[in-house]
Write a structure and sequence with these properties.
heterodimer, A: 80 residues, mainly alpha, elongated, B: 430 residues, alpha+beta, three-stranded antiparallel beta sheet, 18 helices, 5 strands, 25% helix, disordered C terminus
Chain lengths: 80, 430
């Protein structure tokens, strides 16, 4: 009899704790709905853009091709 | 940075970056072909401008960043609109589009390249940099005030003690703070204090700290910077305009070094201090007159001397030398005679009549350093090693090298036991 009572209260206890946790989780989820910009892609397509890398990892080639930017003369005066 | 270097991808390091799994064109557009012109057609130079680029995977931090001050620059709107009226907002927005908006920061502006506003250029061969290097990112933008003060580049003034102990911006400013996680701020001093000195200096602040001056002043009379900052840059009368060619520019009439304490007009539970250092902000009623007349009709709605947290912290400063350094010393306080008459109405809530008096019964004493042995530095400010080491710093900040200090944190020998407090009653009238 004692054992049956213990099992009964143990099961009830577990159920109550579980219900409490579930309630808490639902409450949190409702209080702070996640703001998502987008969903992460599940699959990343295989890398095929080797042409870009062939040039942009080639230091010598970039030194030839890259053009120095003409920076306009600053007319600012004083600390920015 | 040379033109080629700005776009050079370091194959060795980038290949170890998870982002290298993503096709270039996925973020940058263009086409993956061997024809340079065709490849760069419809190129997206700064893909992080589109929040979905980073937000697709880094959802939470990107969402937060969109509302951060680095992205919204809300501080400008807060300060400018408060001095204006809604009818002028459209004109002021136009002004901001030429003179302010280039400072908008995207994820890529700190983690992939130098900020666009300072010329861009890849940081580490397109490798994602989790903690942006201070000199190339943070102080590249926050230069004229924070950098000069923190690095000790203002002639005659030592760098911040935290700089001398090789702390970078991110040592105090957390990623969450910089990304605005959990923060919706209207300006820099909106909401909780982040960073907060007490985070590291717990036990050294306020009553119970055992430090005489801290015991006397508590935590609600003065901000930490009130005693531990030194003179900082104050700018006046910035005007913006465009050249005949349409190139926007600004002109700051003058700037000077100074230190003033004033009433705290941002007093709140987070910032309960009655007195704080204030910095003159570079504005006057005609700052934007190039774009229209009387754009700031409510100029007096905000002070021209603003709550400040100068980045030049020292253990010993002119204020900490003796009680007389502040008490009875009007020169340290923002009084009406320290500004032109037309600025007084804007600052009426923060200016003081004069310095607080010395407490009754106080016996005047000669200012002496409190350290057991004489300070080895030769400067007035008593800051220890006063010479900034830019070369070492440049190499250091991005690399997380473990410091090997030869002195204590403050660059001083161990302090002697502080004397017994003298009569603390009625300081600051409070």
């Amino acid at each position: 009899m004692k054992i049956r009572h213990s099992i009964f209260f143990f099961v009830i206890g577990i159920a109550l704790i579980g219900a409490g946790i579930m309630t808490q989780m639902v409450g949190i989820a409702r209080a702070n709905p996640p703001e998502k910009i987008a969903q992460p892609n599940q699959v990343v397509p295989p890398f095929t853009d080797t042409a870009c890398l062939e040039c942009h990892t080639n230091r010598e080639q970039l030194q030839v091709l890259a053009v120095e930017e003409v920076v306009a003369e600053s007319h600012n005066e004083g600390p920015g | 940075m040379a033109a080629w270097e700005r776009v050079w991808i370091d194959a060795e390091t980038y290949s170890k970056d998870l982002h290298s799994l993503i096709n270039c064109t996925e973020c940058h557009g263009g086409q993956a072909v061997n024809d340079m012109t065709l490849a760069h057609t419809n190129l997206i130079e700064r893909p992080a401008k589109n929040p979905e680029t980073c937000g697709n995977c880094h959802t939470d931090v990107t969402t937060a960043s969109l509302n951060s001050l680095h992205s919204t620059l809300a501080g400008y709107d807060t300060a400018i609109y408060a001095r204006s009226v809604p009818e002028n907002h459209a004109t002021l927005e136009e002004m901001e589009s030429f003179h302010c908006n280039s400072c908008h920061t995207t994820c890529g502006d700190c983690h992939i390249s130098q900020p666009f506003s300072v010329g861009g250029g890849l940081l580490k061969g397109h490798t994602y940099v989790q903690t942006p290097p201070m000199s190339q990112t943070c102080t590249a933008c926050h230069g004229s005030r924070v950098k000069n003060e923190y690095f000790g580049l203002n002639e005659g003034y030592p760098g911040d003690v935290h700089f001398r102990n090789r702390m970078s911006c991110s040592s105090c400013h957390t990623a969450d703070e910089i990304h605005g996680v959990g923060i919706t701020a209207e300006h820099r001093y909106d909401g909780a204090q982040e960073p907060n000195c007490i985070t590291c200096h717990e036990g050294q602040v306020g009553v119970g700290s055992g430090i005489e001056q801290h015991e006397i002043h508590g935590t609600e009379i003065l901000s930490c910077q009130s005693c531990h900052s030194i003179a900082y840059t104050n700018c006046t009368n910035c005007h913006v305009a465009k050249t005949d060619d349409g190139i926007p520019f600004f002109s700051v009439e003058s700037h000077s070094m100074g230190f003033y304490l004033a009433r705290n007009d941002l007093r709140s539970a987070e910032r309960p201090y009655r007195f704080v250092p204030v910095r003159h902000v570079p504005i006057d009623p005609n700052s934007f007159s190039f774009y229209g007349d009387n754009l700031l009709p409510n100029f007096d709605n905000r002070p021209t001397w603003m709550y400040a947290t100068p980045h030049n912290i020292q253990r010993r400063t002119p204020q900490t030398e003796s009680c007389e350094s502040c008490h009875g010393n009007d020169a340290l306080f923002l009084t009406a005679d320290k500004m032109p008459a037309w600025e007084v109405p804007a600052n009426i809530n923060i200016i003081v009549d004069g310095a607080p008096p010395l407490p009754a019964g106080y016996i005047r004493q000669t200012a002496v350093p409190t350290d057991a042995t004489p300070d080895t530095s030769t400067d007035f400010w008593g800051g220890g090693d006063v010479t900034p080491k830019p070369t070492e710093a440049e190499n250091f900040w991005g690399e997380e090298v473990t410091p090997t200090p030869t002195t204590d944190f403050w660059g001083d020998p161990p302090p002697q036991v502080t004397p017994e407090p003298t009569q603390p009653a009625d300081f600051w009238g409070g």
